[in-house]
Design a protein that fits this description.
By secondary structure, the protein is α+β, with helices and mostly antiparallel strands. It folds into 3 domains: 124 residues, PH-domain like (Roll), CATH 2.30.29; 185 residues, Transferase(Phosphotransferase) domain 1 (Transferase(Phosphotransferase), domain 1, Orthogonal Bundle); 84 residues, no CATH class. It is built from 20 helices and 17 strands. The strands form 3 sheets. Strands 1-5-4-3-2-8-7-6 form an 8-stranded antiparallel sheet, with helices on both faces. Helix 7 packs antiparallel against helix 10. It is elongated and about 90 Å long. One of its GO terms (cellular component) is nucleus. InterPro entries: Kinase-like_dom_sf (IPR011009), Prot_kinase_dom (IPR000719).
Length: 507
């Protein structure tokens, strides 16, 4: 045993003799090992590990993939762990602790130690939040702008009181955000915990709650409404591929990204269950707003899943479709009334014959646009056996009709450059658009309302027109807007390495 390792180990034993006897590692199945072997690791190295049962130090290959530490045929979920550091003159030690026990990893190389500690901090629970950050101001409910004391860099922190937090559901959300990446999920940077709060820290972003915008008088047009619903469906498609679900898609949990060059959303406060026992299901039911609980959950005949996510998306579409602005502080979440949807359908049929009735219809509900919208709404809100499937919902004729409606006619393309204000007018334009994306984001190839096809057509036509005549000032400004939009889209379309495929499945 290296003398420096022995000094550190004796120091730890002096205060943690009893707890060091228990390991925090869990065995992997053969199928899980096969999947892990296919995954590109973040770090991989042979390191010195303290063997708890043998009370000895052993060299072992150690592999880090997102949120998982793999040692031979055992693993550790990092988002459940706290992290501590120990040093001597020539050696360093990282201690990982969870409810099961401890893991000690020793280093002789300071370079290797820094590599591992920086990566592990991205996934473990950290301490001393108040020593690292200033809390500057609240942005939306439970979200605060914070500033790093050393670097002065700004971040966003979601603060949850430990006394009020449902820890099992919160841990499940942290594990999910650690294990998968997607453009509609917030990019979790670190997690801190003290005796009062858990702090989920994200890269800085500027957002506003959709409910806040509605209270301020926002009325979505048909394309904006369809864009929100389609993005929710696309996120469900991605989560379904990872064998997980969101579990808490509600109107109150939708943030509008004000930094994006097109309308984009973040559905926050995920609640995927780790266990589906009776107590967990009951806790889940108490934490979800009643209008968003699928009939099969209320009846106790099914557990939360992608199918119940589809119902929640239907409930969001219902609340937006029949939204009426109120003077009250809170946006009213009405119980779902299928008879109201049927009544609207009947009025649309009548309105197709008499234009005046169509005008009267939209005076009361300003976000009711078409019978195809109401058809999708009904099919999302059906009971489980009759409910529309995910792939079918994404190809619904409401989205197809809107895409066709906004395709420019050939003769009009030669006259002017069509505007995309209908899908970006919610976004605040800044001098330099800060991209929320990074090279680890996984992006679905199907974009909202097939923007890429439209952009490519517009850009191609504009390029051809520019060869024929000098651009006007108006076209110059439009070209400038499209260059910003196109650059942002092309950044999204890059396909990163699939480092996040396995982690959630193993967890």
């Amino acid at each position: 045993m290296n003398n420096d390792f022995r000094l550190i180990l004796n120091k730890i034993k002096a205060t943690q003799q009893n707890t060091l006897r228990q390991t925090c590692l869990v065995s992997l199945s053969n199928s899980q090992i096969e999947e892990i072997n296919k995954t590109i690791p973040l770090l991989k190295q042979t390191l010195t590990i303290y063997h708890n049962h043998k009370d000895s130090l052993i060299l072992n290959p150690v592999t880090l993939i997102p949120n998982l530490l793999i040692i031979q045929n055992e693993y550790l979920v990092l988002s459940n762990c706290t992290i501590n550091k120990f040093k001597s003159n020539q050696a360093q030690c990282i201690q990982l602790t969870n409810g099961l026990g401890n893991l000690l990893i020793f280093f002789l190389s300071n370079e290797h130690y820094k590599q591992w500690i920086d990566k592990l901090k991205q996934f473990c629970k950290l301490s001393n939040f108040s020593k690292k950050f200033y809390v500057k101001e609240q942005t939306v409910a439970d979200y605060y702008i914070i500033q790093h004391k050393k670097t002065n860099k700004l971040y966003i922190a979601n603060m949850s009181s430990i006394s009020n937090a449902q820890m099992e559901l919160l841990n499940s959300e942290m594990q999910t955000l650690r294990s998968v990446k997607h453009t509609s999920l917030l990019d979790l940077k670190w997690v801190y915990q003290d005796c009062r709060f858990i702090y989920l820290i994200y890269e800085y972003f500027r957002c506003e709650k959709l409910t806040t915008l509605l209270k301020q008088g926002l009325i979505l047009d048909q394309t904006q409404l369809a864009s929100i619903i389609l993005q929710l469906l696309q996120l469900c498609k991605f989560l379904n591929k990872q064998s997980i679900y969101h579990g808490n898609i509600t109107l109150n949990n939708i943030l509008i990204n004000l930094q994006s060059s097109y309308l984009s959303i973040y559905p926050i406060n995920m609640k995927p269950l780790i266990k589906n026992d009776k107590d967990s299901i009951e806790q889940y039911k108490q934490s979800i707003e009643l209008p968003y609980l699928a009939p099969e959950i209320l009846e106790g005949s099914s557990n939360p899943s992608i199918d119940t996510d589809l119902y929640q998306i239907g409930a969001v579409l219902y609340q937006l479709t029949f939204y009426i602005k109120s003077d009250k502080d809170d946006v009213k979440q009405d119980s779902i009334k299928m008879e109201l949807i049927n009544k609207m359908e009947e009025q649309f049929i009548e309105a197709s014959k008499i234009q005046a009735k169509q005008i009267n219809l939209q005076q009361e509900y300003k976000m009711v646009f078409s019978t195809s919208q109401l058809d999708l709404l009904k099919r999302l809100l059906e009971k489980r056996d009759q409910r529309v499937k995910l792939e079918e919902a994404m190809k619904h004729h409401w989205f197809v009709n809107i895409k066709q409606k906004f395709k420019p006619k050939q003769e009009r393309r030669k006259q002017h450059l069509p505007s995309l204000n209908t899908i970006i007018e919610l976004c605040e334009q800044s001098e330099s658009t800060k991209s929320f994306l990074n090279n680890q984001l996984r992006v679905d190839d199907e974009q909202v309302l097939d923007e890429n096809n439209l952009i490519q057509e517009f850009m191609s036509e504009l390029k051809k027109n520019n060869y024929q005549k000098p651009p006007s000032r108006e076209n110059h400004e439009k070209l400038k807007d499209f260059q910003i939009f196109k650059t942002s889209y092309e950044q999204e379309k890059s396909n990163p390495q699939d480092q996040f495929k396995v982690s959630k499945t193993v967890v």
